[in-house]
Amino acid sequence: MPLPKAPSKPATILDPTAPAIAVPRRVPAARATAEPAVLKIPAAVPQLRRSEAPAAEHGLTLVERHAPAAPARKGKARDAQARRRLFVLDTNVLMHDPTSLFRFEEHDLFLPMMTLEELDAHKKGMTEVARNARQASRSLDGLVASCKTPIEDGMLLSTLGNMDATGRLFLQTQAIGAALPASLPVGKADNQILSVVRALKELHPERDVVLVSKDINMRVKARALDLAAEDYFNDKVLEDTDILYTGVHALPANFWDRNGKGMESWQQAGVTYYRISGPVVADLLVNQFVYLEEGAPFYAQVREIRGKTAVLRVLRDYLHAKNAVWGVTARNREQSFALNLLCDPECDFVSLIGQAGTGKTLLALAAGLAQTFEAKRFSEIIFTRATVPVGEDIGFLPGTEEEKMAPWMGALEDNLEVLNRSDESGGEWGRAATNDLIRTRIRIKSMSFMRGRTFINKFLIIDEAQNLTPKQMKTLVTRAGMGTKVVCLGNIAQIDTPYLTEGSSGLTYVVDRFKGWPHAGHVTLQRGERSRLADYAAEAL
C-alpha cells in the first residue's frame, strides 16, 4: 500500500500545552518595535544631507525643502543638486548689472557680507554705478521681505516674478572664512570674499562653488588659490564679435542661374523690385543688403520675407555724383548702403559700425542736413556722445551745457567744416552765412540730461556709442518721439568704459536686437576713406 503524499504546509502542533509556532510575518518598520532605530522624518521637515551637516554649525545650511524621495530616486536627486552650481557674486557684478540676481537660471547664489557692505558704500550719488547699486539693494530688500522661511534656508529668487530664476539666494549670516596665504592682507575686501569662497568650497565639496567677478585681478587671485572663478557672461550679447551682424550679404556667383527662372520683377514709383525664392532666402533678414559684383553689379535691399520668398529692392547708387547728399558721394559699396538707410524715411533706427576714417559721422551729418534743410523732414539735428576721456580727465568745464560739451565735439566741428567747403558758389561770405544757418539747426546735448525727454521730428545722432552700456542705450533710444530718426555710430574696437567689452557694449546690444526689424537697419563699414596714412595706421598699429 503506498504511503500518503507529504503535506506542502507545516501543520501546527495540536498539543494545547505546547507553545504555538507560526511562520513569521513581515511587519512595517514603524510597528516592529516600540522604539525604532531610525527616526522617521515628516514630509514637512527639511532633510539635511551629509555634506550639509557641518555647514549647519556655521549658519550656512543650504537646505532645499522637499518631501522624502523614494530610495530609487535618491541618486538622481543628489546628482541634480550637484549639477546646480553655487555662484558667489562679487560687488562689481551687481553694480554692473543689478538684474544679475535673476540671470543664473536654476543655480543658487551666495552673497558674502563684504559684498553687501561694498554695495552700501556705493549707493550714494547720481552716477550709473550708484543707481545700479540702489536697484540691486531694492531687489534684495524685496526678496528678504517676501521670504516666509528662515533666511538661512535660502530665499527663492522667483518670488519677485522672475520665473526663469529657479534657484535660491543665500546670505552670509555668520562670520566664516578659510585660511588664506599670509601674504594676502586680511582687511582687504577682495581677500575676505576669497576667504568665504574657499570656506564654501570646503563645506560643500559635492557642489561647484564659483566666484563671479568683473574684476580680472580678482579672478586671477582666485585661480591662484585653486578656486573656480568666471566673468559675468550674461550681459554679453555675443561671445565672439566676428559673428556680429554686418547688415551685408554677398550673393553666390550662380545667383541668376539658380533663381532667374522663377523670378518675378516689376517697377513701382521708379524703383525696381525682384521676388526670389530658394535656399538663399533662409540666410536673409529684412533690410539686409545683398550684392553681386561679378559681371553686371547688382546692389539691392531685402524689403520683405514671407516664408521661402523674399522681395529685393534695387538701391539708389550714391556712388554717382548725381545722387550726392549735401555734396557728399559714397566712396565704396558700404557707404552707399549706409546712405540708403540714412535717407530712407521708413527706417527709424540706423546703426553704423566701422574703424576710424570710414566716414560714419560725415555720412550721418550729410544725411541729417539734407533731410533737415532740403526735404524738411526733420526740424533740427541733435548731436550727443558719451563723454568718456581717452586720457586723464581735465576736470570741470565752465559755461552752459553746449559750452561744456564743446571739447567733446571735435568730430562734429571737423565734419561740418568739410561739409561747408563743398559749396564754393557763395565764396567766403557765403560759407560763413551757411555755417551760421547750419548751427541754428544743430543742438549739442549731454547724455546726463536725457532722462525723461521726448524728441519729436528730430534727427538724433549718438556718436561713440560703443562706450554706452545696454541700459544707457535703451534710455537714449526710447527718447525718440513721432518722426524722429536715431543714428548710432561707433567703433567697438575703441571702448574706453571700464567693465565694457566688445560683446557687452550697448552698440553691440542694439545691433543684435534690432536686426530683422522692418524699420531698422545696420551696416558695418569696412574700408577707411580718410587718408592712406590713417588706413595704414589703423591696420598696422
Count of individual beta strands = 18
General form: globular
Give the proportion of residues in helices: 25-40%
Low-confidence stretches: 10-74
Which architecture of the largest domain would the CATH scheme give at its second level? Answer: 3-Layer(aba) Sandwich
Per CATH, what is the topology of the largest domain?
A: Rossmann fold
Q: How many helices?
A: 17
The fraction of residues assigned to DSSP E strands is: 15-25%
Describe this structure in words.
With 541 residues, this protein is of the alpha/beta class. It folds into three domains: 50-230, 5'-nuclease (Rossmann fold, 3-Layer(aba) Sandwich); 242-314, Elongation Factor Tu (Ef-tu), domain 3 (Beta Barrel); 331-388 and 398-540, P-loop containing nucleotide triphosphate hydrolases (Rossmann fold). The chain contains 17 helices and 18 strands. Strand 11 and strand 12 form a beta hairpin. Helix 5 (113-121) runs antiparallel to helix 7 and helix 15 (470-477) packs across helix 16 (506-514). The longest helix has 19 residues, at 128-146. It is globular. The chain starts with 28 loop residues before the first helix and ends with a helix.
Explain the layout of strands and helices.
Blueprint: H1 29-32, H2 53-56, H3 74-83, E1 86-89, H4 91-96, E2 108-111, H5 113-121, H6 128-146, E3 155-156, E4 168-171, H7 189-203, E5 209-212, H8 216-224, E6 228-230, E7 248-250, H9 255-259, E8 264-268, E9 271-277, E10 289-292, E11 298-306, E12 309-314, H10 333-342, E13 349-354, H11 360-374, E14 380-385, H12 401-405, H13 410-421, H14 427-440, E15 442-444, E16 458-463, H15 470-477, E17 485-490, H16 506-514, E18 520-525, H17 532-540
Parallel strand pairs: 1-2, 1-5, 2-4, 5-6, 7-10, 13-17, 13-18, 14-15, 14-16, 16-17
Antiparallel strand pairs: 3-4, 8-9, 9-12, 10-11, 11-12
